[in-house]
Structure formats: structure tokens, C-alpha cells
Design brief:
4 copies of one chain form a homotetramer. The first copy, chain A, is an alpha/beta fold and about 350 residues long. Chain A contains 14 helices and 13 strands. The first copy, chain A, has 2 domains: about 100 residues, Alpha-Beta Complex (Aspartate Aminotransferase, domain 1); about 240 residues, Aspartate Aminotransferase, domain 2, CATH 3.40.640. In chain A, the strands form 3 sheets. Chain A has a 7-stranded mixed beta sheet with strand order 2-8-7-6-5-3-4, with helices on both faces. The first copy, chain A, has a 4-stranded antiparallel beta sheet with strand order 9-10-13-12, covered by helices on one side. A two-stranded parallel sheet of chain A has the order 1-11. In chain A, helix 7 links the parallel strand 5 and strand 6.
Chain lengths: ~350, ~350, ~350, ~350
């Protein structure tokens, strides 16, 4: 039973449905030589630490490989936010909506406080308003302790370095620390055409999740932390969360390959380029995009009927409420894939 | 600067310093084809579930891949023990001594209660005594809720199926659930020359850690759970601990390869055989072994001077208090390695 | 330096600024005779249990005296909501806004999820919408586990028994449990002119906070629980929160006096009557009330200038954003107090 | 039905079975005048703060009234010990044995580590040994963070100021903080015939539980904290544990009366004196005391038969394993009570 070529599935559900970048798989295989002390005492983990300091231009950056973005976000926040604190974030943020309470678990009761904001971005006004509504120092009220930005947002939009800098300055002015959920960090860096440090280090971010899994890694994301006190805590917090991999050399090997010679940015460029090509094509078909895609994700309102036809054509994607569909490109999405998606969309939408 | 062959390091520190078994690395590479839905909805994770049910002879077993033994133990215990309960275990158990409080974190405050016992094994008498000393139903006192056995123990000794059955029957008689820390489970199964289910399923174990990392895996251990209510909890508990790998197919691929056609037992057999050969040889050199090694680990009292000579000879091992050394063999320890260790030991001990 | 009578302070800030009802203080003094076993094994605590079962018409109700409403709410919720669950409540609820994260602490990470609703009341539509937006069974999403109503609300409005019954039926239909924050429960019962059981037991509430402190008690509120499994948990949960008073007979003595012969309702009637008299008088002065006060609290928009004049006249009250003031009457607010407030308000508002 | 005088019960079970000291009940009644802002903003709570600073001779001491010793201990420890830390204490300490896991709950997973020690006292050698066995800085191992002493111990023995000073110096030398469980603090101060500050402030204690309930209070113990960073945390930690009493003036009133003009020491002196008289008498009857009672508690081995006769004579006391009985005197134990106990004991033991 063979499907006709027209119905071969094309993957647009999520970049975490993609496979492993060959360079990273090769790095794992290359690390499989001899024995190495467990839990991060190995040579590759040391190399990773140096590389992170170099790439993000921070002499005291620490890096903690962990197995998922949920772990990266919630462990970083637990070291930045006291148990009675709150984390200000967009009301759509993954840390509120999609992590099953991991953030309150690891922080010992910290509260995620959602702020509104167009296109899933928080504005300085929204932060200021949250500050104004806070009874500072009153123990009845969870005290704002961290500002967490998601970049790219779950809507595919990207903060610019200057937008981030304005928000972190405001946060720091009230003693908050700053966190960035970078599940798709490379896609944001590439979108902004800036050095990685411009978006993070030089924009006032204290700790961030370095997403790698959605962009070609096998089994690891990482926390990067510039805040010495939080880094000291993370040594213990990551361990007692069970996230210190025993054979950490194989996690570090992936991340070393990822950050070496800009592989991470090249992989993300492919995904962003595919998305740019796709969105241009879909606009030409008069599809109603909810926003201009800035990274590797788009949302479009196509209605229930066209959605069914798109599904029937073999496209794999997520449906959102209100007849909206989400398409995500990964480093594995080829120009041929995009062309084929456009062919099928033309039929489905006509 | 080349070391003379006599001083080539030989790895005896821990089996988690070993590399990845080629069969498991190949399975990862083979899984890297096409796209697959994330978080365990993939084909390989489904296959793993079936395989676990088959190997452990339990129709409703559930399996949860996680990145470390710490995660496997502490998450399983969190689903078996209420926050006000206590876990009875040997006073040397990893869950007390070596997991940095992970067990209290994930259980929301559960207490590990250490019991004494020869050769790191708990006796039914010690369990009965703990029961006798408990004020059952008194909320001032943490209520015994789980009996956790470690097999092989951190001393390298192994419980027999009948020993386990006697302990679990006692635990169940007072309403406790039963857990087994199987960080080196394959080594125990091989040592007991029994089917895996004899040691676990048929001996009254409710949930266990299926160690794979110390025996050739790349990045995953797993929880196996026979207790439906606990399994239901684990769906949520594992997620909010950040241990649901996004690209789970690559974790499942390792475990499928591991459990297929007895690979896990063949790998463990190599480690146990190497240890048997090594301990026989060391006894012949009059080394004082603290116990007869039953799996892949031995402890010997050699004194401070001989310890220094052993280190100087290039052997890599852990030193314990009191002039005791610990040697661990892995699936990668060859007969040649053992012969070379014995040669150097002969010199060092003479 | 004596203040002129016109400037004697009159207390309208909160009913928790009031003193202790003489009947309850007398009950404490009467309990101070002989010795009594600690931690609730005493005669008065036994009497309290029987009284609660009688007043709330539930043969298996359990009662747990605790020192504050925060403890009552957050401990009850911790027994009703698993650590990965969420509690649906009004976005203004005390359990979100005013308890400093107590709810996530005691539940081990449970998430409070605020719903919108006019006059601080949740509508069945809002609950249904929350259900519709939930990915049931998806561990990425906190699963709705409890519906918590506040009655009277923090806006002074009251749910009717039939409104509560409709909401709890909806909640139970999806497997949620139901909780009522009754910090001012007596005021609600009196406002509804119904038997206490009509508002709670017969309306499908599973557990509630029995507020006593704001209505004349010295040092205790209580949890009342109809749900046997939750009650069993609360024995341990209350203890390990440090809320099992050692000399519990003195806490129980207060609550026994409170619930005996309707003292609690008579005290609340005084507060509600004073508020009715006050709101009638303020309306006659053309003050803009934000809602018809249904219990012992009103909110009025008076503007910044009149607020200052009201303060200068010696009235003690809380200011809210937007030129709104909050007035609360307690069981100690007399008819003379109300008359005097109205006299001063007439001057301040003219 | 009247019991013969010989069988009137005499209370020796626990000092928490005693009633309220009249002076403290009068203070509560006196506080019941007018209204007062809730949650500690009142005049009496301010007075309490000053009094604590005066009595304990520390200009920056902070005091937090809470409803139980369990709350006082576990909240104080939560502010002194990070979630990955351990608290070194005697293996018999209440915080391990009798608080149902409150310490791990409030600390977010901290581990209580029991040390051996004669007569329930920890020796410097035991602390040093614990230090020697610690892998400092290794996240696999809970890091010692607090030394907690119980004084008087649960065995009725008392540390001297110099013993405490030696232990706290050792603890501070390794960066630990120091805590004292003073559930019966007044009895220890009286036993040592020293100023309160000599036992605490000048002996290097960072925070302690100020027990009041067992010595005449109605409904409150307190945390006293000399450590500014911990005090800052406690503002939030106490609130979100539900231990900030709404009408705190009535809790503070008790403690103000308690600490004013040495009432607390006079009450404890009565209990210690009664115990001294009782133990002298019992020795004269050849009863085998397990230790010389230093405060208000004794343990004696009397065997099963004599225990039954003592119970039959109307004495109320606790039985321990091995035919041991525990007798506790309170501030309410009179000389007549003691004489009557001795009369009955003479009969029972003969």
C-alpha cells in the first residue's frame, strides 16, 4: 500500500519533530572513545564551558546541560526567584502554559504572573503596570523577582536587542533578575542578524535557556547563567532535579559541535529561510497570516474547510482555535518541501 | 611525552565512566530518519512499552525514560510515597546518600529512613523493627510508605528473588509499596541467573529503576512501574520534572536495543565475568576483599601505601575511608584489562 | 492633646481589626481548668467535631482548627488538588492575590488559575470555557482539579445556594472537587437567610474554610471537610504545616462557642445590619456604590478629594485604585458608629 | 460517682497538657479593647519586638509569633538552610522524629541528619566527624548548612553556655548557621542560672524557637532571629505558611506578658523546682532514674509491673519502650501534687 507522492507527509508540526543534525550525531560518535569521569568532570564539558564564555562574551558564564527546555527554564528560574516570588512573563509563555507546573515545583512555590502584550511580546508599559499594582514588601503578595522573556515568542515574533535592553533595564531598576526562554534561540539570533551576545549578554539578560533540541540536537538543551550566585545554586539544583547526566560527555559533545563555527546559526538560518520562502508563497495565495513570521513559525487563519483539505493533502501541522493553523519549519525543511507545501496549499485553498 | 605501556590508565572507577555500547549507538543513528512526533508519541516509544511488558512479564507495566538514575529513583518514589510518608531503605542507599535531596524535592517532603544491615542488605528483622518503632497513624511521625531495595547494593551484593519476596511481603502486609533501585539491574539479573521477572515482577516489586547508563546506554535510564495509580501520576510527575525528552524516540531507541534479544544481559555478563576473573586473581594475591563480589564491583582493604602504588601504576579507582579501594568493571572491561590489572597489582602489593 | 469627638477614629478598615466577642473569650477562660491531653485529644475538640457535623448536617464532616484563613484555604486545597493540578477560582480570589504563594507551597506546586467574572463571581460559562480550553490528560498542561469559590467574595457579593449548586455540579461533572473560601462565611449565610447546610453541604461543596477570626474569634479559623480521602490527608498535612495547636482545647473552645446556639450568625447579622444601614445612608448622600452590598462590605467611588476629607474626619478605611474606598463593618460596629460615619460623610461629600 | 482521693488523676504526661498562666490570659483580655490593624501592625507586636531585643540583648533581633513549636522550628530552619542543605541535629531531635516532615516541607527538601550523642546531647566530636564525612561542594551530597541543638533536650538534659559556644564556633567555622530548639527554653535558662542572652546571643545561636506554650501560653510560640538575611526571608516564609495571625495583637499580648518582668522564668522555675523535689523523692524510693533531671522532665526504668501499678494509682504519664516512664512537671505542678505522686509511687514500687 503506497501513498501517491501527492500525499507523502510533510512535517510542519514542530521543529522538535525533526531529527538530529548529522554534525551533532557525528560528535556523539566521536566522543565514544575511552572512558571519562562521569557527571561533567570530562574534557568535553570543560571545552563547552570555554566555548559558551567565548560565544556569549562573558568571562564567568556557566553552562548546565539538561534534557529539556522545561528543565532549562524551570531550573534557571528556581535559582533566580525565591519561593515567595513571582515571575513576570507573557500570559502565553511556555512557563505558564506548557510546563505542567514545573516552575512552581522547582522554585518551591514561585508564582508565574502573566502579562498581556501584542503578538506575544511584553511591553515596558505592561511591566510598569505590574510594578504599580504590586504591594512591594507586603508578604501577602508574591513579590516580582524575575522578568522572563520568550524569544522567539511562541507566536514566532522576535524581540530586538534594544527592546530586550529596555525591558531588562526596567526590571533591574526594581531589583528583578532577567531570564530569557531561548527554546529557539538560534532562530532569534539569526532573525536579528546580530551577534549572540548582543541579544543576551549586552542586553541585560542574567540567565537563559539555550535551546538546541529543536534545532538539531539529540538529547540536550542547556542553561547558561551569568549570575554567579544563581550559578552556585544551579550546581545543586540541577543535580537534585536528576538533570546531571551521568555520561555528560555525550551531552556536552552535542553542544560543543552546536556552538562551534556557528553550526547552530547555520541550522537556524535554514529553518528561517524555509519559513520566509513559505510565507511569501502563502501570501501570494492570499492566505491570511496573523503576523509577519520573524523566525521559523507562522500562524494563518484558513478556516475549518481549508484546514481539512490541507490535512487531507498530507501536510502535518497543528490546529489552533478559530480556524487557525500553525506551520513550523526546521533545519530539515528543504526548498523542495516548501515548494511542495505551496503546491498543495494552492489546491487546498482554491 | 608518551607514557610507558605499564602506565596506560585502566578504568576501574565506575561503570558510568564507560562509553556507549555500539549496538545502542547504532540504534540511535537508525532512529534518525524522517520526522516523529515529540514527547513519546513515536513508534519507538510504543515499541519500548511492549518490550518492557514482555521482558518483565507484566501486562500493564508502564515505562518512563529519564536522563539519570537520580531522576528514576526520586520520581518513582514520589509517586509511591505521600509527602508525609517515609521510605525505608538501607542506610547506605544512594537515595539517602548520593542524590542531593532529590527524593525530598520530588516527593514534596518525604523522608528517607535508613535501616542498618550487613553487606548493605536490609533484613526482614530490620524492617520489622522499624515497623515496631512506628507510631502508626500518628501525624507527628513520618509514616512508612515505601520499602526501597537497592540491587545490586552499592557494596556489590545482590538480593536473591526469595530474599526480595520475603521483604516485599512484609512491606505489603503493612500497606507499604515496594521499590527497587536497579541502577545496575542487569548485573543483578545475570548474577542471580534468573529471568528478570523472577527478581522483580514475581518478587513483589511495584516499581523499579531500570538502569541502562552504567551498562552501555548513551543518555537514558528508565522507570518501570507496575502500579497503575503510580503510573498515572508519573505521566504528570515526569513531565513537570522536565524529564520528558522532546525527541524521545532517541531515548526509546536506546532502550529498545538494550532490551531486545538480551543485549542488556550480555553486556552485564561481560562486566560480571571480568569482575569474577579479577577477584579470583586478587584473592590469589592475598588481597583482603571485604565481601565476595556478586556482580561487577569489589571492595578491598589494601592500606594507604599499596593504594598509592596502585594509583602510581595507572589504575583508576575510588578510595574509600580506611584504606579501602573500590574496583568496578563495565561491559568494556576486557580480559586483557583484567590481566593487566592483576600484573600491576602483583607488583604494587608485593 | 485630646482629639475632638468629631475625630475619634471609627474602624471601617477590616473586620479583622475588630476584637474578640465576649462569649468566645469567656469560653477560652472556661476551658482553662485542669489539664488536657494536647494536639486535639481533648473533650472540647471532640465536642467541636460533633457540633460541626450537626450544624452542617454531614455525618462524616471533619474539622481542623488552624490559625488563619491562609492556612485554612491552602491546606484544604493541598488535600484536594494534586501537585500537577490547577485550582479554578476568580481572578480576584484571595488564594491568588493575597496569600503569598501559600497555595503552591502546600500543594507542592499546584497552580491557581484565575477566571474572569462580574462582581467577583464566577459564572458557569467561565468554568465551561476553562474546561474547553484545557487539554485534558496532557501533562504539559496543569489539569483542573478543584473549583474554589469565595463567598462572600472580596467584593462583598454573595453566591446563592442555587448558584453554588450549578457551579459545583459542573465541576463534579469533570471530576473536579469543590472548595469554598468562607473567610466571612457567617455573613454569607445570614445574607442568604438559609441554613448553613443549604449553602455548603447541599450545594455540593467538598471542603470549606470556616472563617471565625473576622467574626469575633481570638486565634482560630478552621477547615471543614466532607471528603473522606481529603480528611485523611489533612490529619498529616495540618500537622506538618505546624497548624496542630498544642493546647488545641483553647482553639476548639472558641469554635464550640461560635457554633453553639447560632452565636456565629448573630455576630454576622450585626455586621450585615450595620452595613445595610450604612449603605442606605450613603446612597441617600448620593455616594456612588460600585455594587449593592450583600454582606458586610461596600465599595464606593468618591474621588481623591472626598477621600482625603473622609480620612481627615477620622474614618479608618482602605483606599483602592481609582478613587474607590472600601468600608467594612464588623460585629462590633454599632448603630451609633454608623450614624456618626454618616454625619462625617455628609460633611466630607458636600 | 466520685473517685477516691487516691485516684484523682495527677498530670505528668506533658507540660503541654497544662493550662494557661493567669497572667497571660489576663493580658489577652486586656488586649481586647478597641480595634487594631491586623497582621502585626499593632502596638503590642511593636512592644514585643522591643522586649525581645532587650531580653536577648540583640539590637536587631526579630520575632515572629507562630502557633506551634513545629512551625517555629521548621520555618526558622527553612530560612537558614537551602533546599539542598542538611541540618545536623541529635538523632533524637524533635525536628527529625516528631514533626511529620515539616522541616522538609518548609525548606523545600532539606534533609535532617541525625548525629549520635550521650544523653541526647551532641558532642563537638560528633559534629567534626560529620564534617569529615562530608564531600564538601559535591552536589550529590546534601551539604551541612545548619547545626540545630535542642535545649533542654527531649531527655531533659541541658547544654551549658560554654557547651553551646563550643558547638556554634565549630559550626560557624565551616559556614553553617546555628539554631536552637527552645520548646522549653525557659526551663533551660533557669536550670543554667544564667541570663537568657548567655545561653543564646552570646553563645553564637543565630535563631531559636522561643517556646511559650508548654510554659503557660495560650496559643503562641515564636521564632527569634538574629540573622538579618534570615529575618528578611521569614517575613515571607511565615506568611505563606499561614502563620501570620490575623489578630496578632492577641498572640503578641501573651508573649509580652510572658517576657515582662521575668514571668517566663518564674513559671519555669516552678516546673523545675517541682521536678527537683520529685526526683529527690523518687531516688529516695530507689527508683532508677536514667539521668539526673536538669530541667522539668525525668525518665525512670520501673518495669512493666510497677508501671501498671503507677497507672492504676491515677498518675498520668507516658510509657517509653523498655519499661521506662517519663514524668514531666509544668508550672502548674504544685508541691502537693509532688507529695501525692511520691505517696502513690511508694505504694506502687513497694
Amino acid at each position: 500500500m503506497t501513498a501517491s507522492p501527492a500525499f507523502e507527509p510533510i512535517e510542519l508540526r514542530s521543529d522538535n519533530a525533526a531529527g538530529v543534525a548529522p554534525e551533532m550525531l557525528a560528535a556523539v560518535a566521536a566522543a565514544n572513545e575511552g572512558s571519562a569521569i562521569a557527571y561533567g568532570g570530562d574534557r568535553l564539558t570543560a571545552a563547552l564551558r570555554e566555548l559558551v564564555r567565548d560565544v556569549f562574551e562573558h568571562a564567568h558564564a556557566e553552562v548546565f546541560p539538561v534534557v529539556s527546555g522545561t528543565a532549562a527554564n524551570s531550573l534557571a528560574l528556581s535559582a533566580l526567584c525565591p519561593p515567595w516570588g513571582s515571575v513576570l512573563c507573557h500570559e502565553s509563555a511556555h512557563i505558564i502554559v506548557n510546563e505542567g507546573g514545573a516552575t512552581s515545583l522547582f522554585s518551591g512555590g514561585g508564582v508565574m504572573r502573566g502579562l498581556p502584550g501584542d503578538q506575544y511580546r511584553i511591553s515596558p508599559q505592561a511591566v510598569q503596570q505590574a510594578f504599580d499594582r504590586t504591594n512591594w514588601g507586603d508578604p501577602h503578595h508574591s513579590q516580582p523577582a524575575v522578568l522572563s522573556l520568550t524569544c522567539p515568542t511562541d507566536f514566532g515574533t522576535v524581540y530586538s536587542p534594544s527592546q530586550i535592553a529596555e525591558l531588562t533595564a526596567l526590571a533591574h531598576s526594581r531589583g528583578l533578575r532577567t531570564h530569557l526562554d531561548g527554546a529557539r534561540l538560534a532562530n532569534a539570533v539569526v532573525a536579528q542578524r546580530c551577534p549572540p551576545a548582543a541579544l543576551l549578554t549586552h542586553s541585560g539578560i542574567d540567565a537563559f535557556s539555550l535551546g538546541a533540541i529543536k534545532n538539531g540536537a539529540l538529547s540536550t538543551d542547556a542553561i547558561v547563567c551569568f549570575q554567579p550566585e544563581a550559578s552556585e545554586q544551579l550546581v545543586y539544583r540541577v543535580k537534585r532535579a536528576g538533570h546531571v547526566a551521568s555520561k555528560m560527555r555525550f551531552q556536552s559533545a552535542q553542544l560543543v559541535a552546536y556552538l562551534t563555527d556557528g553550526l547552530w546559526l547555520r541550522l537556524a538560518q535554514r529553518a528561517n529561510d524555509a519559513m520566509a520562502q513559505l510565507s511569501t508563497g502563502l501570501r501570494a495565495l492570499d492566505m491570511e497570516l496573523l503576523a509577519e513570521p520573524e523566525a521559523n513559525m507562522l500562524f494563518a487563519r484558513v478556516g475549518a474547510e481549508a484546514t481539512e483539505r490541507l490535512k487531507a493533502s498530507g501536510l502535518l501541522f497543528y490546529e489552533m482555535p478559530g480556524g487557525v493553523v500553525r506551520f513550523v519549519c526546521s533545519f530539515q525543511t528543504t526548498a523542495d518541501d516548501v515548494a511542495e507545501v505551496l503546491r498543495r496549499a494552492e489546491v487546498a485553498l482554491s
